[in-house]
Structure formats: C-alpha cells, structure tokens
Amino acid sequence: MRMATRAGNRTPAQLFALAFGVVYLAVGIVGIFVTKGFGNFAHEHTANYDKTLLIFHLNPLHNIVHIVLGLVWIGAAGRHSAAAGVNTLFGVVLLLVFVLGLFDLHFLAIDGAGDPDNYLHLATGLLAVYFGTAGAAGPGTART
Fold first, then answer.
1. How far apart are CA 26 and CA 87, in angstroms?
2. Rounded to an integer, what distance in angstroms lies between the CA atom of residue 123 and that of residue 129?
3. In the structure, what pLDDT confidence band is assigned to residue 46 with cuts at 50, 70 and 90?
4. In terms of pLDDT, which residue wins out, 63 or 132?
5. From CA 131, how far away is CA 11, in angstroms rounded?
6. Rg of the chain (C-alpha set)
7. What DSSP designation does 137 have?
8. pTM for the complete prediction?
9. How far apart, in whole angstroms, are the C-alpha atoms of residue 122 and residue 105?
C-alpha cells in the first residue's frame, strides 16, 4: 500500500509559499533578537538600526516586514490559487524593492547597488514570480 505524503499533494506554488514563508518568518523572529526588539524603527539613528544577520542588513522595520510576509506566505500555502497569487504579488513587490534599492534609499535599509540585500530581493522576487506563474503547477497537477 502506498501512502501519499502531504507534500506530495501540494503544487510547486504551494511548496514555494510554505518554504519561503517559514524562512521569512524565522528570519523576522531571529531579527528581533539581533536588533534587540522593535525600538524606534522609523528612525535610522537608533541602536537597533542596521544590524546584520550573516551579511544581510536588518532593522526593526525589516523584521516586521519579514514576519508579515512569512505569515501571509504560510497562510496562502494551503490552496494553489492563493499560493500562486501571493507568490506573484510578493515577487513583483520584491523586484520593485530591488529596483528602488539600486538608488540607495535608506528607508529600505539598502545601501545601493552593492548591498547583498538588494540581490537577495532580486533572487527571491524572480523565484516568487516564477512559482506564481509558469512554475506554479507541476506536470499533471490539478489546480484547486
């Protein structure tokens, strides 16, 4: 007797949404500890601004955004249509953040074209758009 796994019943869009949701939620939670709370996230001269996790910049606003993105992605992972739609939406937004990040806009906590965060947004945005559109459903996968 062959048992179906839960992951085996999910489309690529759903798996992507779940995986990236978990990662973004975890990064947001870890980021809270790195920046020692939420502080005055709107002001860039606080002790909580511009901390790093590995090579990526964090600030309290970044942490909140990561937590929200993670929760929405996880919530959308239950249905193919929701996962595909959220992947596409978040992918487009992340690509826009990449473009804006090229211009050294400090409110994004991105320091111009050379900032590793910018290229992480580019890679994540491209993957999300792919898993929201062309790569959303695997071969022979029924969309629900």
1. 18
2. 10
3. very low
4. 132
5. 10
6. 17
7. S
8. 0.78
9. 16
